[in-house]
Amino acid sequence: MKPKCVITLDLPEDIVAPLKGHYDVMAWAKADAMPEAQLQEWLVDAQGLLCALSTPITASVLAGAEQLKVISTISVGVDHIDLAAATAAGIPVGHTPGVLVDSTADLAVGLMIATTRRIAEADRWMRTGQWSKGWQSDLLLGSDLSQATVGIVGLGPIGEATVKRLRGFGCGILGWNRTPKAIEGVEMVGLDDLFARCDIVSLHTALTPETFQIASRSRLASMRAGAALINTGRGALVDEAALVEELSSGRLSAGLDVFEAEPLPADHPLLSLDNVVLLPHVGSATFSTRMAMVTRALENLQAGMSGEPLPFCANPEVYGLSA
Ligand code: DGY
């Protein structure tokens, strides 16, 4: 009998077919996220789990998964997985660091320009037939990235790659990182200082209990009038209700790829605001990056199914190694 592997998302058949030679594959084929009860049922006798951000892997999901040898997520972030519960159960968790760094940094800079130069707003304006007067000296004015001071919150690989791109624009760069770090062209400052001094604040830190709502109500309130918040990390890094208030008053603008609740509810107040650029969590969405993420996730899955250490493990302490 082949070991059983559960896949929580609808992947192309050319990715799933080779797995079927080795494993008894059960794949969730619907576009909606897999319900927790269904996942619990499928995991009762499964050894492998291939998942993604849309399916929370909670302690109660893991409680009944007694034969599970590996969890492999097609993401670098693991905040959708109860890592402590997985480690306590002796289950290694694989993720996909490295391969999505450039795509995500590109998108962060793209959002900075789209927000400060009002690109999405201008596009909407044209499509609604409002361009009736030809060139106007004061039409849709924005601000220059080259003249901005940009604050990078979290200087891991994606934050650093964003800095590398920003150097080419000639803007000032402030940085904050959990552990001290020296990076060429970056003035390291405290978090409060960063929020208060920047024209653009860009979030690149992982979501943990310590970074939850790191862009708090008071830090948002301390930002300069006319400043922009960019988030390509996780929605819960921001006090979203406070951000909506700042945007509604017109004091701040924002470029957001991630949200507290995904998908964004159809009646969410952000959808009615013009001074925010909204993207549906597509930071890593290029053909080559998504392929590289899947490849890395399959390497983790296969290693775990064979009882070998995962090449990209998010909880190395499960092997008695330090994280
Ligand atoms: C990740 O991998 O964590 C991104 O948010 C999705 O690509």
Please tell me about this protein's structure.
- This protein has 323 residues and is an alpha/beta fold.
- It is 32% helix and 14% strand.
- It has eleven helices and twelve strands.
- The chain has helices at residues 13-20, 36-43, 59-63, 83-88, 101-116, 119-127, 157-167, 191-197, 217-222, 240-248, 287-305; strands at residues 4-7, 24-27, 48-51, 70-73, 93-94, 149-153, 172-176, 187-188, 200-203, 228-231, 253-256, 276-278.
- It has a seven-stranded parallel β-sheet with strand order 8-7-6-9-10-11-12, sandwiched between helices.
- Helix 7 (157-167) links the parallel strand 6 and strand 7 (172-176).
- The longest helix has 19 residues, at 287-305.
- The radius of gyration is 22 Å and the shape is globular.
- It starts with a strand and ends in an 18-residue tail after the last helix.
- The mean pLDDT is 97.
- The structure holds (2R)-2,3-dihydroxypropanoic acid.
- (2R)-2,3-dihydroxypropanoic acid is lined by residues 53, 75-77, 100, 283-284.
List keywords for this structure.
323 residues; alpha/beta; seven-stranded parallel sheet; five-stranded parallel sheet; 11 helices; 12 strands; binds (2R)-2,3-dihydroxypropanoic acid
How many DSSP E strands? 12
Low-confidence stretches: none
Summarize the amount of helix as a percent range.
25-40%
Query: What general outline do the C-alpha atoms trace?
Result: globular
Query: H/E order of the elements?
Result: EHEHEHEHEHHEHEEHEHEHEEH
- Main sheet specs: 7 strands, parallel
Query: Which structural class is indicated by helix and strand composition?
Result: alpha/beta
In order across it, which strands form the biggest sheet? Answer: 8-7-6-9-10-11-12
User: What's the end-to-end separation, in Å?
Assistant: 35 Å
Which ligands occur here? (2R)-2,3-dihydroxypropanoic acid
Q: What is the alpha-carbon Rg in Å?
A: 22 Å
Average of per-residue pLDDT values: 97
Strand content: 5-15%
Number of helical segments with 4 or more residues? 11
